[in-house]
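Follow-up to my earlier ticket, as requested here are the two runs.
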Amino acid sequence: MTTSRISIVLAESALEIIPTELRNNQLIINYSKKLGKSVSQVFLDKSYHYSAMKEKNIDFLWKRGRPDIVHICLLSILSTPLFLRNLMDVYVHTIDNKVIFIGEQVRIPKSYRRFEGLMIKLYQEKEIKSDEKDYNKYLLKIEKNMTFDKLVDKVIKPDKIIGFSSTGILKDLKTIVNEYIGTNDKKIAFVIGGFQSGHFSQSTRERFHMTYSIANDQLEAHVVISRLIYECENHYLYLMY
Protein backbone atom coordinates (compact mmCIF):
# COMPACT_ATOMS: atom_id res chain seq x y z
CA MET A 1 0.00 0.00 0.00
CA THR A 2 1.17 3.56 0.78
CA THR A 3 1.44 4.41 -2.90
CA SER A 4 -0.80 7.47 -2.75
CA ARG A 5 0.24 10.97 -1.87
CA ILE A 6 -2.72 11.27 0.51
CA SER A 7 -3.44 9.08 3.51
CA ILE A 8 -6.41 9.40 5.84
CA VAL A 9 -5.92 7.99 9.33
CA LEU A 10 -8.84 7.50 11.68
CA ALA A 11 -6.82 7.62 14.89
CA GLU A 12 -7.46 6.38 18.45
CA SER A 13 -10.72 4.94 17.14
CA ALA A 14 -13.29 3.61 19.62
CA LEU A 15 -13.26 0.15 18.02
CA GLU A 16 -12.15 -2.57 20.42
CA ILE A 17 -13.12 -6.03 21.59
CA ILE A 18 -14.44 -6.13 25.19
CA PRO A 19 -11.31 -5.37 27.24
CA THR A 20 -9.97 -7.89 29.74
CA GLU A 21 -10.98 -5.88 32.80
CA LEU A 22 -14.67 -6.06 31.81
CA ARG A 23 -14.94 -9.69 30.71
CA ASN A 24 -16.11 -10.96 34.11
CA ASN A 25 -18.83 -8.33 34.39
CA GLN A 26 -22.25 -10.00 34.50
CA LEU A 27 -23.87 -7.42 32.23
CA ILE A 28 -21.20 -8.08 29.61
CA ILE A 29 -21.52 -11.84 29.99
CA ASN A 30 -25.32 -11.71 29.68
CA TYR A 31 -25.13 -9.47 26.61
CA SER A 32 -22.66 -11.80 24.92
CA LYS A 33 -24.83 -14.84 25.66
CA LYS A 34 -27.84 -13.06 24.20
CA LEU A 35 -25.87 -12.62 20.98
CA GLY A 36 -24.72 -16.23 21.08
CA LYS A 37 -21.08 -15.17 21.13
CA SER A 38 -18.16 -15.37 23.52
CA VAL A 39 -17.07 -12.16 25.23
CA SER A 40 -13.97 -12.15 23.03
CA GLN A 41 -16.20 -11.83 19.94
CA VAL A 42 -18.06 -8.70 20.98
CA PHE A 43 -17.13 -5.05 20.49
CA LEU A 44 -17.28 -2.67 23.43
CA ASP A 45 -20.38 -0.54 22.85
CA LYS A 46 -21.56 2.26 25.11
CA SER A 47 -25.14 1.69 24.05
CA TYR A 48 -25.12 -1.64 25.88
CA HIS A 49 -22.08 -1.62 28.15
CA TYR A 50 -21.95 1.87 29.63
CA SER A 51 -22.90 0.87 33.18
CA ALA A 52 -20.15 -1.76 33.22
CA MET A 53 -17.65 0.74 31.79
CA LYS A 54 -18.64 3.32 34.41
CA GLU A 55 -18.63 0.84 37.29
CA LYS A 56 -15.07 -0.22 36.43
CA ASN A 57 -14.15 3.39 35.62
CA ILE A 58 -12.09 2.28 32.64
CA ASP A 59 -9.42 4.61 31.28
CA PHE A 60 -10.62 7.23 28.78
CA LEU A 61 -14.22 6.12 29.25
CA TRP A 62 -15.49 9.15 27.31
CA LYS A 63 -13.58 8.12 24.18
CA ARG A 64 -14.46 4.43 24.10
CA GLY A 65 -17.35 2.20 23.11
CA ARG A 66 -18.39 3.80 19.80
CA PRO A 67 -17.55 1.27 17.04
CA ASP A 68 -20.30 2.80 14.90
CA ILE A 69 -18.15 5.90 14.39
CA VAL A 70 -15.62 3.83 12.42
CA HIS A 71 -18.46 2.37 10.36
CA ILE A 72 -19.95 5.77 9.51
CA CYS A 73 -16.53 7.23 8.67
CA LEU A 74 -15.58 4.34 6.41
CA LEU A 75 -18.90 4.64 4.60
CA SER A 76 -18.06 8.31 4.02
CA ILE A 77 -14.68 7.39 2.54
CA LEU A 78 -14.93 4.15 0.61
CA SER A 79 -17.59 5.08 -1.94
CA THR A 80 -15.85 8.28 -3.09
CA PRO A 81 -14.07 8.71 -6.44
CA LEU A 82 -10.90 9.67 -4.56
CA PHE A 83 -10.75 6.25 -2.93
CA LEU A 84 -12.11 4.18 -5.82
CA ARG A 85 -9.48 5.68 -8.16
CA ASN A 86 -6.72 4.71 -5.71
CA LEU A 87 -5.77 8.32 -4.99
CA MET A 88 -5.93 7.84 -1.24
CA ASP A 89 -4.82 5.29 1.37
CA VAL A 90 -6.95 4.63 4.44
CA TYR A 91 -6.03 3.32 7.88
CA VAL A 92 -7.97 2.81 11.10
CA HIS A 93 -5.80 3.08 14.21
CA THR A 94 -7.65 1.95 17.35
CA ILE A 95 -7.47 3.16 20.92
CA ASP A 96 -5.86 -0.16 21.93
CA ASN A 97 -3.15 0.14 19.26
CA LYS A 98 -4.32 -2.03 16.44
CA VAL A 99 -4.31 -0.85 12.83
CA ILE A 100 -6.75 -1.91 10.14
CA PHE A 101 -5.39 -1.59 6.60
CA ILE A 102 -8.05 -0.92 3.97
CA GLY A 103 -7.36 -2.57 0.61
CA GLU A 104 -7.98 -1.00 -2.78
CA GLN A 105 -11.58 -0.40 -3.87
CA VAL A 106 -13.01 -2.15 -0.81
CA ARG A 107 -16.71 -1.80 -0.09
CA ILE A 108 -18.09 -2.43 3.39
CA PRO A 109 -21.66 -3.34 4.44
CA LYS A 110 -24.01 -0.40 4.93
CA SER A 111 -25.74 -2.28 7.73
CA TYR A 112 -23.90 -1.79 11.02
CA ARG A 113 -24.61 -5.36 12.19
CA ARG A 114 -23.11 -6.81 9.03
CA PHE A 115 -20.15 -4.45 9.40
CA GLU A 116 -19.69 -5.59 12.99
CA GLY A 117 -19.70 -9.22 11.85
CA LEU A 118 -17.10 -8.43 9.20
CA MET A 119 -14.84 -6.70 11.72
CA ILE A 120 -15.12 -9.57 14.22
CA LYS A 121 -14.14 -11.95 11.42
CA LEU A 122 -11.17 -9.70 10.63
CA TYR A 123 -10.07 -9.69 14.27
CA GLN A 124 -10.21 -13.49 14.31
CA GLU A 125 -8.62 -14.22 10.92
CA LYS A 126 -6.24 -11.20 10.78
CA GLU A 127 -6.81 -10.79 7.06
CA ILE A 128 -9.69 -10.93 4.62
CA LYS A 129 -8.61 -11.64 1.08
CA SER A 130 -10.26 -11.14 -2.26
CA ASP A 131 -11.97 -14.09 -3.94
CA GLU A 132 -10.04 -13.22 -7.08
CA LYS A 133 -7.01 -15.24 -8.18
CA ASP A 134 -4.61 -12.58 -6.93
CA TYR A 135 -3.88 -14.24 -3.58
CA ASN A 136 -1.58 -11.43 -2.50
CA LYS A 137 -4.40 -8.93 -2.62
CA TYR A 138 -6.18 -8.30 0.67
CA LEU A 139 -9.43 -6.48 1.27
CA LEU A 140 -8.84 -5.85 4.96
CA LYS A 141 -5.88 -6.59 7.19
CA ILE A 142 -5.26 -5.97 10.88
CA GLU A 143 -1.98 -5.60 12.73
CA LYS A 144 -1.82 -5.82 16.52
CA ASN A 145 0.52 -3.85 18.75
CA MET A 146 0.90 -1.06 16.21
CA THR A 147 1.01 2.37 17.79
CA PHE A 148 0.24 5.57 15.92
CA ASP A 149 3.99 6.29 15.89
CA LYS A 150 4.75 2.95 14.27
CA LEU A 151 2.01 3.44 11.69
CA VAL A 152 3.33 6.78 10.51
CA ASP A 153 7.05 5.97 10.85
CA LYS A 154 7.13 2.44 9.43
CA VAL A 155 4.12 2.28 7.12
CA ILE A 156 2.91 5.64 5.81
CA LYS A 157 6.17 7.61 6.10
CA PRO A 158 4.54 10.96 5.29
CA ASP A 159 6.36 14.21 4.77
CA LYS A 160 3.71 16.03 6.79
CA ILE A 161 1.11 14.90 9.33
CA ILE A 162 -1.91 17.19 9.60
CA GLY A 163 -4.34 16.72 12.47
CA PHE A 164 -7.90 17.99 12.75
CA SER A 165 -9.24 19.01 16.14
CA SER A 166 -11.59 21.59 17.61
CA THR A 167 -8.56 22.89 19.54
CA GLY A 168 -6.55 23.51 16.37
CA ILE A 169 -5.94 26.72 14.44
CA LEU A 170 -9.11 27.81 12.66
CA LYS A 171 -8.50 27.72 8.93
CA ASP A 172 -10.48 27.23 5.73
CA LEU A 173 -10.27 23.60 4.60
CA LYS A 174 -9.82 24.46 0.93
CA THR A 175 -6.81 26.57 1.86
CA ILE A 176 -5.36 23.72 3.93
CA VAL A 177 -5.74 21.20 1.12
CA ASN A 178 -4.28 23.52 -1.52
CA GLU A 179 -1.36 24.33 0.76
CA TYR A 180 -0.38 20.75 1.49
CA ILE A 181 -1.25 18.89 -1.70
CA GLY A 182 -1.14 21.82 -4.08
CA THR A 183 1.78 21.51 -6.48
CA ASN A 184 4.31 19.30 -4.71
CA ASP A 185 4.78 15.55 -4.63
CA LYS A 186 5.03 15.26 -0.87
CA LYS A 187 3.07 12.59 1.00
CA ILE A 188 0.52 13.98 3.42
CA ALA A 189 -1.28 12.13 6.21
CA PHE A 190 -4.53 13.70 7.38
CA VAL A 191 -5.56 12.51 10.85
CA ILE A 192 -9.09 12.56 12.25
CA GLY A 193 -10.15 11.22 15.65
CA GLY A 194 -12.33 8.12 15.55
CA PHE A 195 -13.93 8.76 18.93
CA GLN A 196 -17.00 10.51 20.30
CA SER A 197 -15.57 13.16 22.60
CA GLY A 198 -12.33 14.39 24.11
CA HIS A 199 -9.10 14.97 22.27
CA PHE A 200 -6.12 13.14 20.87
CA SER A 201 -3.58 11.82 23.36
CA GLN A 202 -0.51 13.98 23.86
CA SER A 203 1.72 11.41 22.13
CA THR A 204 -0.47 11.59 19.01
CA ARG A 205 -0.76 15.39 19.05
CA GLU A 206 3.00 15.72 19.28
CA ARG A 207 3.38 13.98 15.93
CA PHE A 208 1.25 16.54 14.07
CA HIS A 209 3.16 19.15 12.11
CA MET A 210 0.03 21.29 12.27
CA THR A 211 -3.38 20.94 13.92
CA TYR A 212 -6.37 22.68 12.37
CA SER A 213 -9.99 23.34 13.19
CA ILE A 214 -12.17 23.82 10.10
CA ALA A 215 -15.29 25.30 11.72
CA ASN A 216 -16.41 27.33 14.71
CA ASP A 217 -18.66 24.42 15.65
CA GLN A 218 -17.38 21.05 16.83
CA LEU A 219 -17.90 18.69 13.89
CA GLU A 220 -18.32 14.95 13.98
CA ALA A 221 -15.55 12.87 12.43
CA HIS A 222 -17.53 11.76 9.38
CA VAL A 223 -18.42 15.37 8.56
CA VAL A 224 -14.76 16.43 8.67
CA ILE A 225 -13.83 13.46 6.49
CA SER A 226 -16.55 14.19 3.93
CA ARG A 227 -15.49 17.82 3.62
CA LEU A 228 -11.82 16.89 3.41
CA ILE A 229 -12.40 14.36 0.64
CA TYR A 230 -14.56 16.84 -1.27
CA GLU A 231 -11.76 19.41 -1.26
CA CYS A 232 -9.16 16.80 -2.22
CA GLU A 233 -11.35 15.66 -5.10
CA ASN A 234 -11.67 19.22 -6.32
CA HIS A 235 -7.88 19.41 -6.35
CA TYR A 236 -7.59 16.17 -8.33
CA LEU A 237 -10.49 17.01 -10.65
CA TYR A 238 -8.31 16.84 -13.74
CA LEU A 239 -7.31 13.28 -12.87
CA MET A 240 -10.84 12.04 -12.43
CA TYR A 241 -12.86 13.60 -15.22
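Run two:
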Amino acid sequence: MNSLIRRTLSGIVFLAVMIGGLLWNQYSFAALMLLILIICMIEFYQMTMKDRYGISRSWAIISSVFLFLLAFGVRAYGWEGRVLGLAFIPVLLVMIGSLYTKDRASFGEFANLYTGILYIAFPLTLTNFAAFQGGVFRGLTLLSFFIIVWASDVGAYCFGMALGQKYGKKLFPAISPKKSWIGAIGGFCSSVLAAWLVSVAGWLEIPWYHALALGAIMDVFGVYGDLFESQWKRHYEVKDSGNIIPGHGGFLDRFDSALFAIPAAVIYLSCFNLFV
Protein backbone atom coordinates (compact mmCIF):
# COMPACT_ATOMS: atom_id res chain seq x y z
CA MET A 1 0.00 0.00 0.00
CA ASN A 2 2.82 2.40 0.86
CA SER A 3 4.40 1.63 -2.51
CA LEU A 4 1.12 2.33 -4.31
CA ILE A 5 0.65 5.62 -2.45
CA ARG A 6 4.21 6.69 -3.22
CA ARG A 7 3.80 5.77 -6.87
CA THR A 8 0.45 7.62 -7.10
CA LEU A 9 1.72 10.79 -5.44
CA SER A 10 4.88 10.93 -7.52
CA GLY A 11 2.77 10.33 -10.65
CA ILE A 12 0.51 13.25 -9.76
CA VAL A 13 3.49 15.54 -9.17
CA PHE A 14 5.03 14.39 -12.45
CA LEU A 15 1.85 15.18 -14.39
CA ALA A 16 1.45 18.56 -12.69
CA VAL A 17 5.01 19.56 -13.57
CA MET A 18 4.62 18.37 -17.15
CA ILE A 19 1.30 20.13 -17.74
CA GLY A 20 2.40 23.33 -16.02
CA GLY A 21 5.72 23.46 -17.85
CA LEU A 22 4.14 22.84 -21.24
CA LEU A 23 1.30 25.33 -20.88
CA TRP A 24 2.65 28.23 -18.82
CA ASN A 25 4.87 29.95 -21.37
CA GLN A 26 7.70 29.34 -23.81
CA TYR A 27 10.36 29.72 -21.12
CA SER A 28 8.80 27.14 -18.80
CA PHE A 29 8.59 24.82 -21.82
CA ALA A 30 12.28 25.33 -22.59
CA ALA A 31 13.27 24.84 -18.95
CA LEU A 32 11.21 21.64 -18.72
CA MET A 33 12.59 20.16 -21.93
CA LEU A 34 16.17 21.02 -20.93
CA LEU A 35 15.63 19.40 -17.53
CA ILE A 36 14.34 16.24 -19.21
CA LEU A 37 17.19 16.29 -21.73
CA ILE A 38 19.91 16.68 -19.11
CA ILE A 39 18.57 14.06 -16.70
CA CYS A 40 17.87 11.52 -19.47
CA MET A 41 21.41 11.93 -20.80
CA ILE A 42 22.91 11.62 -17.33
CA GLU A 43 20.96 8.40 -16.78
CA PHE A 44 21.93 7.02 -20.18
CA TYR A 45 25.62 7.74 -19.68
CA GLN A 46 25.56 6.38 -16.13
CA MET A 47 23.97 3.18 -17.42
CA THR A 48 26.38 2.73 -20.33
CA MET A 49 29.61 4.32 -19.09
CA LYS A 50 29.31 4.36 -15.28
CA ASP A 51 31.68 7.01 -13.91
CA ARG A 52 34.19 6.89 -16.76
CA TYR A 53 35.05 9.83 -19.03
CA GLY A 54 33.22 12.37 -16.87
CA ILE A 55 34.55 15.43 -18.71
CA SER A 56 33.60 14.08 -22.13
CA ARG A 57 30.14 13.12 -20.87
CA SER A 58 29.61 16.61 -19.46
CA TRP A 59 30.72 18.20 -22.71
CA ALA A 60 28.33 15.98 -24.69
CA ILE A 61 25.48 17.18 -22.49
CA ILE A 62 26.55 20.81 -22.91
CA SER A 63 26.61 20.26 -26.69
CA SER A 64 23.07 18.91 -26.53
CA VAL A 65 21.85 21.88 -24.50
CA PHE A 66 23.45 24.19 -27.07
CA LEU A 67 21.64 22.37 -29.87
CA PHE A 68 18.29 22.72 -28.09
CA LEU A 69 18.81 26.43 -27.41
CA LEU A 70 19.70 27.10 -31.04
CA ALA A 71 16.50 25.38 -32.19
CA PHE A 72 14.56 27.33 -29.56
CA GLY A 73 15.98 30.58 -30.96
CA VAL A 74 15.03 29.58 -34.50
CA ARG A 75 11.44 28.73 -33.60
CA ALA A 76 10.76 31.33 -30.89
CA TYR A 77 12.68 34.33 -32.19
CA GLY A 78 12.92 33.70 -35.92
CA TRP A 79 16.68 33.17 -36.08
CA GLU A 80 18.03 31.96 -39.40
CA GLY A 81 17.83 28.18 -39.64
CA ARG A 82 21.46 27.99 -40.66
CA VAL A 83 22.56 28.82 -37.09
CA LEU A 84 21.71 25.21 -36.24
CA GLY A 85 24.95 24.27 -38.00
CA LEU A 86 26.81 25.84 -35.07
CA ALA A 87 25.64 22.92 -32.92
CA PHE A 88 28.14 20.69 -34.71
CA ILE A 89 31.10 22.64 -33.29
CA PRO A 90 30.87 21.38 -29.68
CA VAL A 91 30.21 17.86 -30.98
CA LEU A 92 33.45 18.11 -32.96
CA LEU A 93 35.20 19.13 -29.74
CA VAL A 94 33.87 15.97 -28.07
CA MET A 95 35.43 13.96 -30.89
CA ILE A 96 38.72 15.84 -30.65
CA GLY A 97 38.74 15.41 -26.88
CA SER A 98 38.63 11.65 -27.31
CA LEU A 99 42.13 11.83 -28.82
CA TYR A 100 43.56 13.07 -25.53
CA THR A 101 42.07 10.50 -23.18
CA LYS A 102 44.65 8.45 -21.31
CA ASP A 103 42.37 5.50 -20.54
CA ARG A 104 42.15 3.42 -23.73
CA ALA A 105 40.85 0.25 -22.09
CA SER A 106 37.20 1.20 -22.65
CA PHE A 107 37.68 3.55 -25.57
CA GLY A 108 34.76 1.97 -27.45
CA GLU A 109 32.44 3.53 -24.87
CA PHE A 110 33.00 6.89 -26.54
CA ALA A 111 30.45 5.76 -29.12
CA ASN A 112 27.83 6.02 -26.36
CA LEU A 113 28.50 9.77 -26.18
CA TYR A 114 27.31 10.23 -29.75
CA THR A 115 24.48 7.74 -29.26
CA GLY A 116 23.18 9.81 -26.36
CA ILE A 117 23.15 12.94 -28.50
CA LEU A 118 21.33 11.22 -31.36
CA TYR A 119 18.99 9.16 -29.18
CA ILE A 120 18.00 11.83 -26.64
CA ALA A 121 19.10 15.33 -27.63
CA PHE A 122 17.86 15.33 -31.23
CA PRO A 123 14.31 14.11 -30.45
CA LEU A 124 13.88 16.57 -27.57
CA THR A 125 15.24 19.38 -29.74
CA LEU A 126 12.49 18.61 -32.25
CA THR A 127 9.88 19.47 -29.60
CA ASN A 128 10.60 23.10 -30.52
CA PHE A 129 8.98 22.45 -33.90
CA ALA A 130 5.83 21.18 -32.19
CA ALA A 131 5.66 23.91 -29.56
CA PHE A 132 5.95 26.88 -31.94
CA GLN A 133 3.74 27.52 -34.92
CA GLY A 134 4.39 30.63 -36.97
CA GLY A 135 6.63 31.92 -34.20
CA VAL A 136 3.80 31.69 -31.66
CA PHE A 137 4.14 29.40 -28.66
CA ARG A 138 1.39 26.81 -28.44
CA GLY A 139 2.10 24.32 -25.70
CA LEU A 140 -1.21 22.53 -26.25
CA THR A 141 0.17 20.91 -29.39
CA LEU A 142 3.09 19.35 -27.56
CA LEU A 143 0.88 18.44 -24.60
CA SER A 144 -1.42 16.65 -27.06
CA PHE A 145 1.56 14.64 -28.29
CA PHE A 146 2.38 13.56 -24.75
CA ILE A 147 -1.27 12.70 -24.07
CA ILE A 148 -1.24 10.39 -27.10
CA VAL A 149 1.96 8.72 -25.86
CA TRP A 150 0.60 8.37 -22.32
CA ALA A 151 -2.68 6.94 -23.61
CA SER A 152 -0.73 4.34 -25.57
CA ASP A 153 1.30 3.38 -22.51
CA VAL A 154 -1.73 3.19 -20.21
CA GLY A 155 -3.81 1.26 -22.74
CA ALA A 156 -1.03 -1.24 -23.35
CA TYR A 157 -0.51 -1.72 -19.60
CA CYS A 158 -4.21 -2.20 -18.81
CA PHE A 159 -4.96 -4.57 -21.69
CA GLY A 160 -1.69 -6.39 -21.16
CA MET A 161 -2.30 -6.97 -17.45
CA ALA A 162 -5.95 -7.89 -17.92
CA LEU A 163 -5.61 -10.21 -20.91
CA GLY A 164 -2.12 -10.29 -22.33
CA GLN A 165 -0.49 -12.28 -19.53
CA LYS A 166 -3.02 -15.10 -19.94
CA TYR A 167 -3.86 -15.10 -23.63
CA GLY A 168 -2.05 -14.45 -26.85
CA LYS A 169 1.60 -14.27 -27.79
CA LYS A 170 4.38 -12.11 -26.41
CA LEU A 171 5.43 -9.11 -28.46
CA PHE A 172 9.22 -9.20 -27.98
CA PRO A 173 9.96 -11.88 -25.37
CA ALA A 174 13.75 -11.69 -25.84
CA ILE A 175 13.78 -7.98 -24.92
CA SER A 176 10.67 -7.35 -22.83
CA PRO A 177 9.02 -10.59 -21.64
CA LYS A 178 5.92 -8.91 -20.18
CA LYS A 179 4.80 -7.13 -23.33
CA SER A 180 2.08 -8.92 -25.30
CA TRP A 181 0.33 -8.48 -28.62
CA ILE A 182 -2.96 -7.93 -26.80
CA GLY A 183 -1.36 -5.13 -24.82
CA ALA A 184 0.06 -3.67 -28.02
CA ILE A 185 -3.38 -3.71 -29.66
CA GLY A 186 -4.91 -2.07 -26.58
CA GLY A 187 -2.24 0.62 -26.66
CA PHE A 188 -2.81 1.20 -30.36
CA CYS A 189 -6.56 1.68 -29.92
CA SER A 190 -6.03 3.97 -26.91
CA SER A 191 -3.50 6.08 -28.81
CA VAL A 192 -5.77 6.53 -31.85
CA LEU A 193 -8.73 7.38 -29.60
CA ALA A 194 -6.69 9.94 -27.65
CA ALA A 195 -5.47 11.56 -30.88
CA TRP A 196 -9.05 11.85 -32.12
CA LEU A 197 -10.23 13.34 -28.82
CA VAL A 198 -7.53 16.04 -28.63
CA SER A 199 -8.32 16.89 -32.25
CA VAL A 200 -12.04 17.19 -31.54
CA ALA A 201 -11.28 19.28 -28.46
CA GLY A 202 -9.25 21.67 -30.61
CA TRP A 203 -6.03 21.08 -28.72
CA LEU A 204 -4.45 19.64 -31.84
CA GLU A 205 -5.52 21.76 -34.79
CA ILE A 206 -5.44 19.19 -37.58
CA PRO A 207 -8.18 17.38 -39.53
CA TRP A 208 -9.61 14.32 -37.82
CA TYR A 209 -8.21 11.91 -40.40
CA HIS A 210 -4.71 13.24 -39.83
CA ALA A 211 -5.33 12.87 -36.10
CA LEU A 212 -6.20 9.18 -36.53
CA ALA A 213 -3.10 8.60 -38.65
CA LEU A 214 -0.98 10.51 -36.15
CA GLY A 215 -2.25 8.38 -33.26
CA ALA A 216 -1.40 5.21 -35.15
CA ILE A 217 2.07 6.41 -36.13
CA MET A 218 2.94 7.67 -32.65
CA ASP A 219 1.81 4.40 -31.08
CA VAL A 220 3.96 2.25 -33.38
CA PHE A 221 7.04 4.41 -32.93
CA GLY A 222 6.39 4.72 -29.21
CA VAL A 223 6.37 0.93 -28.83
CA TYR A 224 9.69 0.72 -30.62
CA GLY A 225 11.05 3.49 -28.40
CA ASP A 226 10.05 1.52 -25.32
CA LEU A 227 11.63 -1.65 -26.68
CA PHE A 228 14.79 0.21 -27.68
CA GLU A 229 15.36 1.41 -24.14
CA SER A 230 14.50 -2.04 -22.76
CA GLN A 231 17.22 -3.49 -24.97
CA TRP A 232 19.80 -1.13 -23.47
CA LYS A 233 18.70 -1.96 -19.94
CA ARG A 234 18.76 -5.68 -20.62
CA HIS A 235 22.25 -5.43 -22.13
CA TYR A 236 23.60 -3.55 -19.12
CA GLU A 237 21.52 -5.62 -16.67
CA VAL A 238 19.68 -2.76 -14.98
CA LYS A 239 16.01 -2.70 -14.01
CA ASP A 240 15.44 1.05 -14.26
CA SER A 241 17.44 3.87 -15.82
CA GLY A 242 17.30 5.72 -12.50
CA ASN A 243 15.22 6.30 -9.39
CA ILE A 244 14.48 10.02 -9.56
CA ILE A 245 10.69 9.42 -9.72
CA PRO A 246 9.67 7.28 -6.71
CA GLY A 247 7.91 4.13 -7.84
CA HIS A 248 8.37 4.96 -11.53
CA GLY A 249 12.11 4.69 -12.11
CA GLY A 250 14.12 7.25 -14.04
CA PHE A 251 13.32 9.97 -16.54
CA LEU A 252 14.52 7.82 -19.43
CA ASP A 253 12.04 5.13 -18.37
CA ARG A 254 9.23 7.69 -18.59
CA PHE A 255 10.24 9.30 -21.88
CA ASP A 256 11.55 6.32 -23.85
CA SER A 257 8.38 6.09 -25.96
CA ALA A 258 8.24 9.85 -26.54
CA LEU A 259 11.82 9.92 -27.84
CA PHE A 260 10.66 7.92 -30.87
CA ALA A 261 7.01 8.99 -31.08
CA ILE A 262 7.39 12.78 -31.02
CA PRO A 263 9.97 12.98 -33.85
CA ALA A 264 7.70 10.72 -35.90
CA ALA A 265 4.78 13.07 -35.22
CA VAL A 266 6.78 16.17 -36.14
CA ILE A 267 7.99 14.59 -39.38
CA TYR A 268 4.49 13.38 -40.32
CA LEU A 269 2.82 16.76 -39.74
CA SER A 270 5.67 18.58 -41.47
CA CYS A 271 5.28 16.39 -44.56
CA PHE A 272 1.67 17.54 -44.86
CA ASN A 273 2.51 21.20 -44.14
CA LEU A 274 0.54 21.14 -40.91
CA PHE A 275 3.35 22.94 -39.09
CA VAL A 276 4.28 26.52 -39.94
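The only thing I checked on run two: The beta strands are 132-133, 136-137, 170-172, 176-180. Let me know what else you need.
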